[in-house]
Amino acid sequence: MFSSKEEFKEVFVKNLESETGKTKDQATEQDAYRALSHLVRERLLQKWKETEQAYQTSGKKQVYYFSMEFLMGRLLGNNLLNMGVLNVVEEGLMDLGLTLPILEEKEADAGLGNGGLGRLAACFLDSLASLRLAGHGVGLRYRNGMFTQRFVNGQQVELPDHWLQDGYMWEVRRDEAAVEVQFGGEIESYEDKDGDLHFTYKNSQSIRAVPYDLPVVGYEEKSVNTLRLWSAEPAEEDLLNKAQIEQAHGNFIGHQRDLEEITSFLYPDDSHEEGKKLRLKQEYFLVSAGLQSIIAQFEELDLPWTDFSERVALHINDTHPALIVPELMRIFMDVKGLGWEEAWSITQSSVSYTNHTTLSEALETWPVDVIRTLVPRIFMIIEEINERFCQSLWEQDPGDFDRIAQLAIIADGTVKMAHLSIVGSHSVNGVARLHTDILKKREMKAFYEAFPERFNNKTNGITHRRWLLHANPSLSELITNTVGEGWKRQPNRMKELLAYREDGTFLDELHQIKQQNKVNLAQWIEKDHGIAVNPDSIFDVHIKRLHGYKRQLLNALHIMHLYNELKANPSKEMTPRTFIFGAKAAPGYYFAKKVIKLINTIAEVVNHDPDTKDTIKVVFMEDYSVSLAEKIIPATNVSEQISTASKEASGTGNMKLMMNGALTLGTMDGANVEIHEAVGNDAIYTFGLSSEEVLSYYQTGIYDAMEMYNHDKRIRRVVDQLYHYSPFSKGDTTFHELYHALITHNDEYFLLKDFNSYVAAQEEISHDYLNQRKWNEMSLLNIAHSGAFSSDYTIQNYADDIWKISEAKMLNG
Ligand SMILES: *Cc1c(COP(=O)(O)O)cnc(C)c1O
């Protein structure tokens, strides 16, 4: 279809005119976006069908990645890239007076996730399809994704994200695959004539789950996998019994709205569990709908149930879909008539689980009563799983009550979803080497000792297609021109760039590309935020969710410190810097919102003070999202990865930035440890406490923030500026909470402890940046070693070690 530019232009214009009834010159950019997406979609549908058939007939195992979040971002550009027609289309549009990146902006950014966890799921889908692995996503079609962030007086305001408003080009509704999910009611049991126990539901509420499928195109269009997003609607029987419902619920519309509420919005909390009943409803809805459709597909194969785990792998992304375990048991036993032992063995060999955090506030637990009322049969099964599990522990080690109490799934009136996930799976993995070590040695030590063979590490990754090929075409072109095309399929081959680390011409080209990307970002910042930034300054970037442990406040304190130094001595030599932030705070996270207000206040002050404005600029970009990340990352010099050691399980932003030639300024935390190992000590800036030191402070409780404050003038100065009259506080009490977090509550995240080593590392950066030759060489080292962090390798490891799936041959080669 798009084999040549001319051909594309012809088809495109024809399509545009017939769809809109306008001439090419009358059509708007929105029209052009839709016409182009339509063309792409049509071509995909054919490939999609072929892929599905090939998977069904190949007899290969398929993996289903269950996740409450998929942070997909925009799809048009990525689909064109993976279909191999990006250049043809871009040039063709140019002839027609259209610019592809502008059309891409017309697409809604699918923000069905909070941050790293959801973006990981999206990168994994891209890698699965690109490796021709039969792997699909299972998620929820929230009608409101992650909120849109605006700043009013420097404070965050949340606006609803109606991303489906103009219709979404990439989804296909599949009415024929709808299923029903049951909530509430009572369970009645009876024995049949053979003495087998059966369970029936009384007064339960039935909700219709309708799937919307999104095609996931692999690189070079090798296969088109599926992301299936479920939407809640009133059940058919409800529609037929409208009159009765009017009577029972007062009004039908209200009742309908209650049902649809299940998929109405994404919970906007990252690394924090809300514990709301609606959230549990969402989780069970995802699990039950997803499993019913997978089982229906398996049944079409006409195989015995004992083959299930040879054809199906079920992965749970964090504990949110942990109800897969009891729901699968329910379907096998209550619907398909299997016995407990057989159902349990199939369940365990099908399910695997990824742990994403050791933060206690993120651990998911549910009060027994909540689960019992919402999904009574599921609760019975969890109880039985727990009984049998505790029994087996007793048999292993009779009399060790402590161990049983520690490992039990149900304890103190709550259900521990992590325990349920571990007990019900054959594999448990952490997301970076350090994180997995902490799981084994500390957080899940007792489980690790009980089932050492279940535990393994899979360091996170990112798709180099979106984050390099698409986000940074000029750098990609330079790489290809230098080492050939091979790295696109084998990203590790970016290492061939190492041969050019002393090549002045190459390093200059690298520099030019970074400069141009910085100029582009500077223009964007000027247009969007009205702030003029200097493209020759260091672009120092801190983009990720706003969270105490991610320590945006430490970055802010450092900027306050620089301001103080410049004010004390306006002629002080300082390498110019632009500090760029992007971060959303959970709407109820008071501390995080104060940090946003502080950074915006600092920006107000330093951007306008004649003593500082030419040396430091601060920009907090609104509404951090996948598309904004794609703009910022190629223009970054310094990547801030400054979490309190032991707290960031992996991080993936660190990998995206490294791949685009930024130098990491980081603690030895999460995957920073592996980045450090890959690039070597001379191409990264590390600082701060080690994870061992942090964990031991937590254990001994001997850290004293007040001591840091009392004994260090620089620290005292910035901390006082939060509390007392200062250019930032203006005598207001706005930042008192931040002061209290640091002093009254003893600085839970060790900002003051790490302050001096952070400042020292920043000074080293300012010094090193002046030696452009050295800086460019370090940048090259980062790019060259970044291929190892492609999610293609991560996914290959999941496929080999956990899912046991291999490449599917397409019918047409
Ligand atoms: C990659 C990404 C994240 C994760 O960033 P971390 O720095 O690893 O926390 C969050 N949000 C978006 C939009 C991303 O693209």
How are the SSEs ordered, and which strands pair?
Elements: H1 5-20, H2 29-58, E1 62-66, E2 70-73, H3 76-82, H4 86-95, H5 100-104, E3 110-112, H6 116-130, E4 135-140, E5 148-152, E6 155-159, E7 172-173, E8 179-183, E9 186-191, E10 197-202, E11 205-217, E12 224-234, H7 236-240, H8 242-249, H9 252-260, H10 277-299, H11 308-311, E13 312-317, H12 324-335, H13 340-350, E14 351-354, E15 365-367, H14 368-374, H15 376-396, H16 401-407, E16 410-411, E17 414-416, H17 417-423, E18 427-430, H18 433-443, H19 445-450, E19 455-457, H20 464-470, H21 473-483, H22 504-529, E20 538-543, H23 552-568, E21 577-582, H24 590-606, E22 616-621, H25 626-632, E23 638-641, H26 653-659, E24 663-666, H27 672-679, E25 685-686, H28 691-700, H29 705-711, H30 713-723, H31 736-742, H32 751-769, H33 772-785, H34 791-803
Parallel strand pairs: 1-4, 1-13, 4-12, 13-14, 14-18, 18-19, 20-21, 20-23, 21-22, 23-24, 24-25
Antiparallel strand pairs: 2-3, 5-6, 7-11, 8-11, 9-10, 11-12, 15-17, 16-17
The chain binds pyridoxal-5'-phosphate.
Keywords for this entry:
813 residues; alpha/beta; Rossmann fold; ten-stranded mixed β-sheet; 49% helix; 15% strand; globular; binds pyridoxal-5'-phosphate; Glycg_phsphrylas; EC 2.4.1.1; pyridoxal phosphate; Glyco_trans_35; glycosyltransferase
